[in-house]
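Bumping with the actual sequence this time:
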Amino acid sequence: KRGADLKLTINPKVQRTALGELQKLGKSGAVVVLEVQTGAVVAMVSNPTYDPNQLADNWQLLNSDPNAPLFNRATQGLYTPGSTFKLITASAALESGSFTPQSRFRDDKGEIVIDGFTVHNYRTEPFGEHSFQEALSQSINTTFAQIGDQLGEKKIVDYMQKFGFYEKPPLDLPPDEIMASGRYGGGELLSPGDSMDKVQVASMAFGQEQLLATPLQMALVAQSIANGGKMMKPYSVESVADYNGTIVKQARPAVWKTPIEPGTASDLKDMMVKVVNEGTGRKTKTSKVQMAAKTGTAETTGGRQNAWFMGFAPAENPKYAIAVVVEDSDSGGGIAGPVMRETMLSALGL
């Protein structure tokens, strides 16, 4: 049987850069880069990786490797999203009509008690009086816990579903190679209708609790904000041609969801620019391009944490969106941020 030619959307240069940045850290993790206006996958990296030329002879050895090189962390890896999830909480808050980027919050002491549970800021630092915009740029847990408490469970879960949580993104891979993001319990995806108490809602609002998300999902969140509120259906196959060169399948970009209004996306973009210029994402700042981003440092088990960084560039006319996760690491801004910066510069040819 004569085969067909498969043309992917992957940019090998960007793919090599992203993989190289992860390998320099010597850490497991993943990077997903999407074209903002189309949803095309520009890079999808999972580290550690493997040599496909050796797969036929060594698949049993690779399959038993504790580092799981055959596991696609970009689409199957479920990680606590940490503060990157604050973008979803912020979306719900802005569209509730009760908050604007300029909304003020009273004197922050570094911790707050909600229903008997004490929420701490990262490293417990106090921030005093501040705006909603500053709460995002400085990633203030206490403020987002209050916002979550005020919005309530239904509103936050509703926006999770608007952004594609609780279902598998429609990427052109076998369904068992893609995981749905959402709340998990006992290794299973919980129903969006599963009830939560006030402490769980407040914790979820700043990205903890039982939340788990894939890098692909968080890249889609960044892409939709960059694209004026339109989340594009992700795809990695550009075209398929038969042995005569005739195109038998051609990708056509399509909107998958519209989670937020254009005005909300614009407000979030401005807030994410401040993350890079004045907040927790300063290590990605570069004179070559203005980036918009959100950091995340997610607590896992045994005192370990994962570093997240997601965003897009150029901020004024976004072309690429990205999500980075680095396992067993330090802060998102310090560790995952430089991976984003170098990968984004490679994508933009800068």
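The tokens above came from a reply further down the thread. The first helix runs from residue 12 to 25.
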